[in-house]
Design brief:
4-stranded mixed β-sheet; two-stranded antiparallel sheet; alpha/beta; elongated
């Protein structure tokens, strides 16, 4: 923590540095995960578009992670490559990756785990 004095005479205490946004972070399968990571990874693939949706469920106490993203026919053949890249970057294995032509409007993250909310 650092105490700083403003030109107006007020004094404030601030953290030494910004560590990142915590409002977006989720814990899935014991791993800290930021949904915005997915958009960064999808931009590396020309077959996929930027629109995506993440669904998190709990089955028998184990997190189940699904990704739905927009893409064309060639994208459907590259899901294994996308899955490997997601695992490498996020340290999470997505249980299901679905490619759709057009993704309907809706929330970026759907967290269906009991007692969890994400806004």
């Amino acid at each position: 923590m650092v105490r700083e004095r403003c030109e107006c005479g007020r004094e404030t205490t601030l953290p030494r540095g910004v560590l990142g946004r915590t409002d977006e972070m989720m814990k899935i399968k014991g791993v800290k995960f930021w949904p915005s990571q997915i958009g960064t990874i999808l931009r590396e693939f020309l077959d996929y578009r930027d629109r995506y949706r993440i669904r998190v469920r709990s089955k028998a106490g184990v997190d189940w992670l699904e990704l739905m993203t927009e893409g064309d026919e060639s994208a459907k053949g590259r899901t294994e490559e996308l899955s490997r890249r997601l695992k490498q970057e996020t340290l999470l294995a997505f249980d299901k990756i679905e490619i759709v032509e057009k993704l309907e409007q809706g929330p970026l993250v759907i967290d269906e785990r009991e007692g969890r909310t994400f806004k």
